[in-house]
Design brief:
Elements (H helix, E strand, L loop, with lengths): L1 H28 L6 H23 L6 H12 L2 H13 L3 H30 L1
Length: 125
Amino acid sequence: MVQTLLQVALGGALGASARYLVNVGTMRLIGPGFPWATVVVNVLGSFLMGALVVTLAHKDATRLAPLLMTGVLGGFTTFSAFSLDALTLWERGQASLAAAYVAGSVILSLAGIFAGVVAARGIFA
């Protein structure tokens, strides 16, 4: 149990650090106004989750799931930031943009996990 908890903690630190770097990089490249960084981490994280679930099962490496899936991807993706971003857009009076952000994030994240599963299955087929 302690070893698994340490894996999750290490993975969470790595994932949260990666998310921070994506936030900084996106802000420098695109600037403020729309929460692109949150979209990027959630869609990329969904893709990686799909690829990992297939890869770990194929490689009989599910023992790495706490580190990689719960830790790294749990720290990297962020539903709370997504919720705050949607609320912020709404409170700014940008209801249409908030709705597009919510719908786009959900649809793209679902597409990301689907693409990750398909890509990983293609590799191991």
